[in-house]
Amino acid sequence: MDSYDLKKRTKKFAHDCVKFTSSLPHNKLENHITGQLIRSATSVAVNYRAVELAHSKLAFASKLSIVIEEADECDFWIEFAVDENITTK
Fold first, then answer.
1. For position 3, what pLDDT does the model report?
2. Domains (ranges, CATH) in the chain?
3. d(Cα 54, Cα 61) in Å, to the nearest integer?
4. Cα dihedral 63/53/76/18 (nearest 10)
5. Which pLDDT tens digit goes with each residue over 2-23?
6. Percentage of the chain surpassing pLDDT 90?
């Protein structure tokens, strides 16, 4: 897997999360989850692009750790939606 493939996959992940949120009902809780998930999913894609521009191994590791944290946040919001019986996906 090369960096171009990961660039495409992280962008697709962001799009998939946006599509997922559009299937949620619209009330206060779901709107909050939607906003948080969209922010963290798009952050995964944007920050991965920054990883590719790192000028040192230290910068690379730092930027990649942000991508990992944002991906974990996405996982949390999806799990939370399932736990709240908002979705079964």
1. 65
2. 3-83 (1.20.1440.60)
3. 9
4. 160
5. 667 999 999 999 999 999 999 9
6. 87
- For residue 89, pLDDT beyond 70: no
- Residue 14's φ and ψ, nearest 5 degrees, are -60, -45
Alpha carbons 50 and 63: distance in angstroms, whole number: 7
Residues 88 and 8: their CA atoms lie apart, in Å, by: 26
Residues with Cβ within 8 Å of 45's Cβ and at least 6 positions away in sequence, in order, are: 10, 11, 13, 14
Tokens 């000028």 sit on residue: 55
DSSP 50-85: HHHT-SSHHHHHHHHHHHHHHHHHHHHHHHHHHHTT
Contact 14, 48 (CB under 8 A): no
Digit-coded pLDDT (tens) for 41-60 = 999 999 999 999 999 999 99
